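Q: Sequence in, structure out?
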Amino acid sequence: MNPMVPLISSGVAGPLGALHLPRLWLKVSLEVVGKLAPGYPGAGKGYDQMVIDGLGLQREAVLGFIKNSKPTYPQFEAWVKKNGTKADKTSIEKLNAAIRGYNHDDATRKAILAANGLPDDASAPKDAISLNNLDDWKEFYEAVLK
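A: Exactly. Output:
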């Protein structure tokens, strides 16, 4: 099987309600089995680390659990609920607000828009979730559909 572009958006939450958590699980899971597309970190320093920190988890524990257990997504969420020190509704709402409110720097925004043939004008997305979606869709198109 060819490497896969992770197409679960950072704007998606599972039953726990934490945005980006399904994407984190997918990327790390794909990396563990050697199927994550080049250029994608299993667990990077942006949203991935925001989610790990926002849920009160330890980075190495998250990576180790996924590597050693290869959990389904519901199994991963159960582990997060058990191990996260901030997996309560209030903490998750705070995390989600931070994820929704995060914007890329100007250079990153301009590069993603340009790569997709979109103008950097008033109608262009500014938030990182939308820009990351555009980036993923372009990568998927290039890798699979072109």
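The radius of gyration is 16 Å.
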